[in-house]
Design goal:
- The two termini are 27 Å apart.
- It is built from 4 helices and no strands.
- By secondary structure, it is mainly alpha-helical.
Length: 132
């Protein structure tokens, strides 16, 4: 099976080699708000491959277990490549070029709290499922 580290490496390499191309293409074809909207929608769609049924035997079992995770990881990486530059640009716009670092700090604090809360809730849900 493919491990979390391998998925992280695949998405990281995709980002290293694709970020500038994706950002350039999105800048040429979409407005900032459209890029953010499409990127966020793609983040939601990225979880759909995980719903694919996995065969119980043979090579199909291995492929069926690995491929959805890899596809989801790559879709999340592309979605992040789409959203992130425009998200950061939006912060600068909202800051009106004043106290930009403060706005970035506030943004990252809010994101950190959201990530922490999400991880805590996910852990609690997994623990509750294991007990049930």
């Amino acid at each position: 099976m493919i491990g979390t580290g391998a998925l992280f490496a695949i998405s990281g390499l995709a980002t290293i080699f694709g970020q500038t191309r994706v950002t350039a293409w999105c800048t040429q074809h979409w407005s900032s708000s459209r890029a953010i909207t499409i990127g966020l929608a793609l983040m939601g769609v990225a979880f759909v491959p995980l719903l694919a049924p996995v065969p119980t035997t043979g090579v199909g079992r291995t492929i069926g277990a690995v491929a959805p995770a890899v596809v989801s990881g790559l879709l999340l990486a592309v979605a992040t490549m789409i959203v992130y530059p425009f998200e950061m640009d939006t912060i600068i716009t909202l800051a009106e070029s004043r106290l930009v670092a403060t706005y970035y700090g506030l943004y990252n604090t809010i994101c950190g709290v959201g990530i922490t809360a999400g991880n805590l809730l996910t852990g609690a849900a997994l623990d509750a499922a294991a007990r049930a």
